Amino acid sequence: MIAPDGNQLGILPTEQALQQAYSMNLDLVEVAPEARPPVCRIMDYGKFRYEQSKKAREAKKKQTVIELKEIKLRPKTEEHDFQFKARHAERFLKEGNKAKITMMFRGREMVRMDRGKALLERFVEALKDSGVVEQAPKIEGRNMTLILAPKHS
Fold first, then answer.
1. 91 and 35 share a domain?
2. Is the peptide bond before 37 cis (omega within 30 degrees of 0)?
3. CATH, residue 126
4. Which of 29, 114, 147, 152 has the most crowded Cβ, counting Cβ within 10 A?
């Protein structure tokens, strides 16, 4: 058994341990049930749970959530639109998010998938300073997707 100040009180019968905790207006909490004999501690359990939830909230505040932002292109995307979308992707990567670049093919464009792949490679080249390829271009039905992750320097 462990006292509220951290000192060990030794091995005590359950009734005596409960009586001691009750006399201090505290709770008897089983800390290590697998140990032989089980380890118990005298503490204010309500305060302990409050401190645990407070620590969990602080940890949650500090964590960052990485989102996957999507940018859609077509094989016939013009230069200005390409630059505009590249700037958006660069902003996403600088914010710490991942960027999913989707090349959409329609009708006869499916025959010339090499043009779409070339445009995606040009996109990667334009963003080589702020992002790295996490998933190489792969075809999923009528779409070709590429995932870029932020470059950590």
1. no
2. yes
3. 3.30.110.10
4. 147
Residues 6+ apart with CB under 8 A from 24: 4, 42
What's the alpha-carbon Rg for the chain, to the nearest Å?
30
pLDDT at 65: 76
* pLDDT one-digit tens code per residue, 52-75: 999 999 988 887 777 889 999 999
- Asked if 74 and 119 sit in the same domain, the reply is yes
Q: Establish if 5 belongs to a structural domain.
A: no
Amino acid occupying residue 144 = M
Q: What are the tens digits of pLDDT across the range 12-56? A: 888 888 898 898 899 888 888 888 888 889 999 999 899 999 999
Q: Does 55 lie in the same domain as 74?
A: no
CA distance 148 to 93: 8
Q: How many CA atoms lie within 13 A of 61 on its CB side?
A: 6
Cα angle for residues 148, 102, 141 (degrees, 5° grid): 125
